Amino acid sequence: TLQQWQTADAAHHLHPFTNQADINRQGSRVISHAQGAYIFEANGHRLLDGMSGLWCCNLGYSQPRINQAIAAQLEELPYYNTFFQCTHPRATELAQAICNKAPAHLNRVFFTNSGSEANDSVLRFVHRYWDARGKPQRKAIIARENAYHGSTIAGASLGGMGFMHEQFEPLRGIHHIPQPYWFGAKGDNADMDEQDFGLWAANQLENKILALGPDNVAAFFAEPIQGAGGVIIPPDSYWPRIQEICRQYDVLLVVDEVIFGFGRTGEWFASQFYQLEPDFIVFAKGVTNGFVPLGGVLVSDRVSEALLSHTNDLAHGFTYSGHPVACAAALATLDILAEGPISRIKNELSQTMRDYWLPLADHPLVGQARCKGLVGALELVKDKASKQRFAGNGHAGTVCRNMSLQAGLVMRATGDTMIIAPPFILDRNEIKDLTERAWQALDLTQAQLQQ
Ligand code: PLP
């Protein structure tokens, strides 16, 4: 029963990103089943999943072709590894299929189990690359404040969330520059026009490279749009300038597409959406529709050439690198995505999202509504004109997240920024329904905050 699950859970289960006091007080929320774009709590409450799980079940929860591919693979070859010159058909087919979708200059894939491991792997490849190029002193890494790149030591060191760095000693040699967060611009930047702000934010990369010495800088890591950091959609001026700076100083560009890879912008990869030429694309989550774990790294031709020219073995890998069951799930996911969901985002749903999501800016609590492809954010403010926030450092966001559940919608809160990343399978009416529920959640939040 629900109560038995909650009791056992409180006693035995260490939850990621959870405060145990909340579990002790309220019990865990037990999600017992799912269908299409909806999840169901064990108490029967139905929720429209506006977050696609953790940005991964992009095709929703009911995909029998993926289930069948998993079952068939378990019969055919449930496990083999890809170490010591071995492969198996699904890993090879998937590597080829992913390269066929990626920008033309990325033609090799390294498989991991997760996005965190994929970012760890890139760090090791970056060092090997500069070693092979005879510049082993190029070790400094630049990433961005408030970024999320995973929870391993390397992933969390790359990430720029202060509260995560408090829990351990981050790896040395990783530096952070400001995020292109125009709504949050402060001081002299607060009055900047959006495109000027985008250039300012991009130029922080050049400043950091010059401060560290260009010959010491190995790579720049960034998400195309920061996801967990608050759906920070960069101004249009941002990415072209970043690309220019990376080229000018020969700094490797690592685009972490764990959230945006496999369609969320309406292109297979956000690097295509922003016309980037990355040296690495990091992926995970949506590659298997979240049904089984799989992550990986797409590697550019110039980098793989250097990596493979190194005289030592590529001494790096995981027992489950290219797990056959995960690869089978991914191949089925890619087949389904190729049949229309991604082009539907490009041709129809991004506009539908703009039509319904952006008017949420009219709500008295919303300082800004923004969206791109199938992600959106709302900035909760106490005063629209001055963008003044509510007291309590994220309290309003937490209230709104809870009220959203009451309204039958899963939204996520990052501080006082509400985030949405719905499944690609929604139709126009469901997107309208989603935004109506969001509006209702805002009304409930307003009432609660006024109490
Ligand atoms: N990179 C980004 C941009 C992410 O959003 C995440 C997870 O949310 C990760 C990396 C880490 O991926 P994983 O949780 O699969 O390790």
Automatic annotation (TrEMBL):
The keyword Magnesium does not apply. NCBIfam families: PRK07480.1. The keyword Transferase applies. GO terms for molecular function: pyridoxal phosphate binding; transaminase activity. Pfam families: Aminotran_3. This is Aspartate aminotransferase family protein. Belongs to the class-III pyridoxal-phosphate-dependent aminotransferase family. GO terms for cellular component: cytosol. InterPro entries: Aminotrans_3, Aminotrans_3_PPA_site, PyrdxlP-dep_Trfase, PyrdxlP-dep_Trfase_major, PyrdxlP-dep_Trfase_small. Keywords: Aminotransferase, Pyridoxal phosphate, Transferase. Its cofactor is pyridoxal 5'-phosphate.
